[in-house]
Amino acid sequence: xxxxxxxxxxxxxxxxxxxxxxxxxxxxxxxxxxxxxxxxxxxxxxxxxxxxxxxxxxxxxxxxxxxxxxxxxxxxxxxxxxxxxxxxxxxxxxxxxxxxxxxxxxxxxxxxxxxxxxxxxxxxxxxxxxxxxxxxxxxxxxxxxxxxxxxxxxxxxxxxxxxxxxxxxxxxxxxxxxxxxxxxxxxxxxxxxxxxxxxxxxxxxxxxxxxxxxxxxxxxx
Length: 221
What we know:
Blueprint: E1 5-27, E2 34-51, E3 54-68, H1 70-78, E4 89-93, H2 107-122, H3 130-139, H4 145-212
């Protein structure tokens, strides 16, 4: 007669990864695009059952459930010991159930707005020293040494913005676009790979069914 034993401990857990598809696209924290195919990582408390001379492990309550884009999942596996980790989207914890999606932020739109804000800061009538310089130039009075210094500072400040801040933001914008393209490419590759695997599995199932029916797979008359 089988003697079954069950045991639990705060350290017992199960971790699993599954592929999820979404027809509407899922917003991911730290990702600049929405994803129709992504990875779900789930951690549960576990129960250990010993029965029929075999160990069985059963999941209990969910401790955490997170989503990762294909790029984030690959980075998590390959980029070890880097910073605090890779961004992921928390969808459930032991205390919080059905956590909603994070707000979607189009990185291209954000970068474009930041670039426009930087340009406006450099070339507007409230720029540092600009008002003082224009007041001096419009006063019609002789321009003294201190006035020249004020005007020079106004030009230097604008020059610093045009040659420093704006080119830097342009570089960051280019990097973000490259990252977005890479994410999109990763999402497409993951989708295609999933479809190939799915098609292959269906083909194998079909072959097995033919064998079970007594037919010869791959042979046509």
